[in-house]
């Protein structure tokens, strides 16, 4: 039986991943949030443990601070992970008007950092994995747009978060996506289609130039992309392979492929 969040918690509590001396380092972009009046940078432990347990690297938190020195963030990284979050990309970032109640909540600190960080990381050839909000940020950073799905869709047709009593149920694998024949994701997963989770109410409207659709849902929505001409691993998924990376075959293959690319990059840097 597949398992997700509870398994991550047990693994972390037992200390099953530890940074090795000289292990590659993957930067994880944080969310910006306020708790009890204090501004915090927060990262899901699902992301942290996926990087440590499956990708085999040391996670480094990159605070979503608007004044961040992006080049300093990237200088010692061997990989970049831009994951999901509790907020949406602000529509003004892709030229749309905003409905605060319908389109929010927002995290404009993260928007500011992500939209500068992503192009610079890819220009440097740093292997990168973009998940959910991270994929949306990738599309916006390259000039694409997003659109919110209708609010009145029945749950079986909805991409947004399903009703559930716990996190494993919310992240359950429930949506079939077809993979591009001969594409990056098909080669990684070794399949023509995979079953994924779906928690994103914002879909790709206009796919940005330079991005290639790698997975498409039954309704035609784009669920994964690669970056055309990227010098190394550069993949975005609207679904969350990080959540089931310890037990689902396709999810594990995606995180493992990312980890392999990060180690290659670190080795090439060391040789240089």
Report a brief summary of the structure.
The protein has nine helices and 13 strands. With 272 residues, the chain is α/β, with parallel strands linked by helices.
Name its key features.
32% helix; alpha/beta; 272 residues; Rossmann fold; nine-stranded mixed sheet; disordered N terminus; 9 helices; two-stranded antiparallel ribbon
Write the layout of secondary structure elements.
Elements: H1 5-13, E1 25-29, E2 31-35, E3 38-42, H2 45-54, E4 58-62, H3 70-75, E5 79-82, H4 100-103, H5 108-123, E6 128-131, H6 133-141, E7 146-148, H7 167-170, E8 175-179, H8 184-189, E9 193-196, E10 202-204, E11 211-217, E12 222-227, E13 234-237, H9 249-271
Parallel strand pairs: 1-4, 1-5, 5-6, 6-13
Antiparallel strand pairs: 2-3, 7-10, 8-9, 8-11, 11-12, 12-13
Helix pairs in contact: 1-2, 5-6
